[in-house]
Design brief:
This is FZ domain-containing protein. This protein is α+β, with helices and mostly antiparallel strands. The protein has helices at residues 77-83, 87-92, 218-221, 225-237, 273-278, 288-296, 397-419, 438-453, 502-508, 520-529, 541-548, 598-605, 617-635, and strands at residues 14-16, 25-27, 32-38, 45-49, 57-65, 97-101, 120-122, 127-132, 140-145, 156-164, 170-172, 178-183, 188-192, 201-208, 243-249, 327-333, 340-351, 354-359, 363-366, 373-379, 382-390, 456-458, 490-493, 513-516. It contains 13 helices and 24 strands.
Length: 636
C-alpha cells in the first residue's frame, strides 16, 4: 500500500508491548513491536521468536526515541588507555546492544552470557540488524541492553523490534544514492541513483537539521527508521511537511564507455530548440531586436570563447541506447530561507503482506537567503543544468528563459559549423580517440557553455571565506596557496556591470549576487573529448583561470585533481564520507565549484592517479586561429 501524500509504503501496524518483570515479549513473524528500555536499567529487554531451523531469520532494531550519548574520541590514545579499552570497545560502550541466541539454555542473552560474539551487534546511528542463515527448532531468543556507559545521561529509549522469515524488513544501505542539485530561497532539487524500468518505489523525507522535528542527535539516530519516519509523520499531522513533487529525468545518466564492436557509446537525446521556442510565449519590447543582437555578440575574451556543443547525434557509428537509464528527481518546496535540512531517500518493496524498506545515506543542504537566485532545471537548451541562476523577480520567467535560449542557440550554431568540418561519421578518418566520440565532444562543450554563460547563483560571502580571486589582481603566474580551509570558489557580483557576462546585467539586472564559479575541469573535459579541429586550450590555473574558474576541493596546486589540498589530509571523512576523488560537492552540503557532472565523469574515467592531460603542441599554436574563426561566426 502506498501513501498518496508521500509515496512511502505504510508499514505493518505497530504494536506496543512492555513485558512483565521476568518475562519475555513474544514476537510474531514480521510484526513491528515497540517497547521501553530505561537507560540505567540493570537488566535488558528480552524477546522470543518461534521458528524452525530450515528458515532464515532477519532481526532488526531501531531506536525511536531517547537521549543521544556523546561518543568517546576513539582516536585519543591516552583516553583509550585510561578507559582500558580498544577503539571498538570504547565506541560500543555508549551504544544500545542486541544479543541473539538460538539455544533454549540461554533464553536471556546478554553481556554476561556465553552468546557467540557473531550474534552481538550495536545500534550505531540508532539501527542494527542480525541475520541468521538458519533459525532453530528451539526458537530464537533476543536480548536488548542499555549502553554500558551512559556517561551521566539519563532517560528512556523506545525500542522498535522486528523479526521476520520473509526477508530484511529494515535495511540500511551505505552507498550514496541521493544527490543534491541545488537550492534557492524556498526550494531544493535532489535526484536519486540511476535505474531502468520498472521504476523502484523510492521516496524522500526532508527534516530540519536543527530545532523542532529534527533528530535530537544526528550521530545517535541518523539511521533510525522509526525516529525518522515518526518525525515525518508528525510534520504531516500538523500540516507543516514541505511539498515534494517527483518526476523522472535522464540528467546525469549517460554512461561513459570505451569503444569496441559491442561496446559503443549511447546516442544522445536531441533537444529541440525550435520546438521549445514555439512553446514559449513572452512579451515584446521596442528594443527586443537590439537585445537579441547583444545576446549574440558574446565577448570572446570571457572564459576563452563561448561555444556550444550540439547535442543532436549525426555519427553513424553511435548505436541506440539499449537500456535507457533515468533518475527520479525531487523538487522540494515550502522550505524556510537560510535553513539547514537533512534529506533521506527511502525505497519500499512489498514482501508478502509486509513492506521491506531501505534507508540510504542522508544528504544535508541549506536554503539560500537571496531573493534573486532562482532554481532552474529541465531546460531543453541546457539539459544538464540544474541549479539556481541570477534572476530578477520582477522579470517574466518565460522571457528570461527565452533570452538564455537565444544566447545558447547562437553559440550552438557557431560550434556546429566548426565541428562539421571534421569527419565524425567516418570509420577511417573520424576515430580520433579510443574513448571519445564527437557526441562526447558536443556534450562537453554544451556543459561548459551552460556553466559559463549561465552563472550559478548563490548568497554573497565574506571574501575572506572564498577561495576565488575576487578581481584577479593577485594572479601573477606564481604558485597560489592551497585551499586548505576548503572554501568555495565564489565571486561576489556587486554593483552594476559586475557580472562576468555583460548581458546578465544588461538584460536581467538581477542585482547583487554571488557566483559559484565553474570547475576548471569543465573546460578540461572539452580538451579531452574533442577532435583536433576544435583546437581547444584552457587557461592556466595560476595565471588567469582563478578569475573565472574554481577547482575541486581535493585539487592539487595546478587546479586539477587529485591532491591532498595543501595538507588538508587524505582522509575522505572531511567530505562527510562522500567521494574522495574529484570532490565538487561533499555530503555536508558544501559546493566548491559548479561541476556540471564532470566530477562523476572523471571518477568513472580514471582508475589510477589522475593527471592533467598535456595538450599537444599542434593544439596550442592553432588555438588563436580557432578563436578568430569562432569569433567571426558569432560577430559576423
Amino acid at each position: 500500500m502506498i501513501s498518496a501524500s508521500t509515496g512511502i509504503s505504510i508499514p505493518t501496524s505497530v504494536v506496543n508491548k512492555n513485558p512483565k518483570p521476568g518475562h519475555a515479549i513474544a514476537l510474531n513473524d514480521s510484526q513491528i513491536v515497540r517497547s521501553n528500555l530505561r537507560i540505567n536499567a540493570s537488566d535488558g529487554l528480552f524477546y522470543t521468536f518461534n521458528t524452525t531451523k530450515d528458515k532464515s531469520v532477519w532481526i532488526s532494531l531501531s531506536l525511536c526515541q531517547g537521549p543521544g550519548i556523546p561518543a568517546y574520541n576513539t582516536s585519543d590514545e591516552d583516553l583509550l588507555d585510561r578507559l582500558d579499552k580498544s577503539a571498538d570497545e570504547a565506541q560500543h560502550m555508549t551504544l544500545v546492544s542486541m544479543y541473539v541466541s538460538r539455544d533454549k539454555s540461554n533464553p536471556r542473552p546478554g553481556p554476561k552470557t556465553s552468546s557467540s560474539s557473531k550474534y552481538v551487534v550495536y545500534a550505531q546511528g540508532g539501527w542494527t540488524q542480525i541475520s541468521l542463515s538458519k533459525g532453530s527448532d528451539q526458537g530464537v531468543y533476543i536480548g536488548v541492553w542499555p549502553p554500558e556507559d551512559p556517561r551521566n545521561v539519563s532517560g528512556e529509549y523506545v525500542i522498535q523490534m522486528t523479526a521476520s522469515t520473509k526477508g530484511s524488513l529494515e535495511r540500511v544501505d551505505y552507498v550514496p544514492s541521493l544527490f543534491l542539485d541545488d537550492t534557492d530561497r524556498e526550494n531544493a532539487l535532489l535526484t536519486s541513483f540511476n535505474y531502468t524500468s520498472p521504476a523502484p518505489n523510492i521516496s524522500l523525507i526532508v527534516l530540519p537539521t536543527q530545532g523542532d522535528f529534527s533528530l535530537s542527535s544526528i550521530t545517535y539516530f541518523n539511521s533510525s527508521f522509526c525516529r525518522i519516519f515518526d518525525l515525518w509523520e508528525e510534520m504531516s499531522f500538523l500540516g507543516i511537511q514541505p511539498f515534494i513533487n517527483s518526476s523522472e529525468t535522464n540528467r546525469n545518466t549517460l554512461p561513459r564507455v570505451t569503444r569496441g564492436a559491442n561496446n559503443q557509446p549511447t546516442a544522445l537525446p536531441t533537444p529541440s530548440f525550435e520546438n521549445s521556442a514555439k512553446n514559449v510565449s513572452f512579451s515584446t519590447s521596442s528594443n527586443a531586436a537590439s537585445n537579441k543582437k547583444r545576446m549574440a555578440a558574446l565577448d570572446p575574451g570571457d572564459v576563452t570563447q563561448l561555444e556550444l556543443t550540439a547535442v543532436n547525434t549525426t555519427d553513424t557509428n553511435v548505436t541506440e541506447q539499449v537500456l535507457a537509464q533515468v533518475r527520479k528527481q525531487f523538487h522540494v518546496s515550502g522550505l524556510s530561507p537560510g535553513t539547514n535540512y537533512t534529506a533521506y531517500l527511502v525505497s519500499s518493496k512489498d514482501v508478502g503482506e509486509s513492506v521491506q524498506r531501505t534507508l540510504f545515506p542522508s544528504v544535508k543542504f541549506v536554503t539560500k537567503t537571496a531573493e534573486n537566485c532562482k532554481l532552474m532545471y529541465d531546460l531543453d537548451f541546457c539539459p544538464e543544468l540544474a541549479y539556481s541562476v541570477p534572476y530578477n523577480p520582477n522579470m517574466s520567467q518565460v522571457l528570461a528563459l527565452q533570452a538564455l535560449e537565444n544566447i545558447i542557440t547562437q553559440n550552438y550554431i557557431n560550434f556546429t559549423k566548426t565541428l562539421d568540418t571534421f569527419p565524425c561519421a567516418s570509420d577511417k578518418f573520424g576515430l580520433y580517440s579510443s574513448v571519445s566520440t564527437c557526441d562526447d565532444c558536443r556534450r562537453s562543450y554544451q556543459n561548459w557553455l551552460c556553466a559559463v554563460a549561465i552563472p550559478r547563483c548563490t548568497d554573497l560571502v565574506d571574501p575572506e571565506k572564498s577561495a576565488a580571486s575576487q578581481n584577479g589582481t593577485e594572479l601573477q603566474g606564481l604558485p597560489m596557496p592551497a585551499n586548505v580551509h576548503l572554501y568555495p570558489y565564489i565571486v561576489n557580483r556587486v554593483g552594476s556591470n559586475s557580472s562576468r557576462q555583460a548581458y546578465i546585467d544588461e538584460i536581467f539586472a538581477p542585482g547583487d549576487y554571488g557566483e559559484l564559479l565553474p570547475c576548471l575541469l569543465t573546460c578540461e573535459m572539452v580538451t579531452r573529448t574533442c577532435p583536433p579541429v576544435i583546437q581547444w586550450q584552457c587557461p592556466r590555473w595560476t595565471v588567469t583561470a582563478q578569475r573565472d574558474y574554481g577547482a575541486f576541493a581535493d585539487a592539487g596546486s595546478d587546479g586539477y585533481g587529485v591532491g591532498q589540498n595543501g595538507g588538508a589530509g587524505p582522509d575522505g571523512m572531511r567530505f562527510g564520507g562522500a567521494y574522495t576523488r574529484y570532490v565538487a560537492q561533499d555530503a555536508f552540503g558544501h559546493v566548491y565549484c559548479n561541476a556540471m557532472h564532470v566530477d562523476r565523469l572523471f571518477r568513472e574515467a580514471s582508475t589510477g592517479a589522475p593527471m592533467r592531460t598535456i595538450m599537444p603542441s599542434w593544439r596550442i599554436w592553432t588555438a588563436t586561429l580557432s578563436i578568430y574563426i569562432l569569433s567571426a561566426l558569432v560577430l559576423g
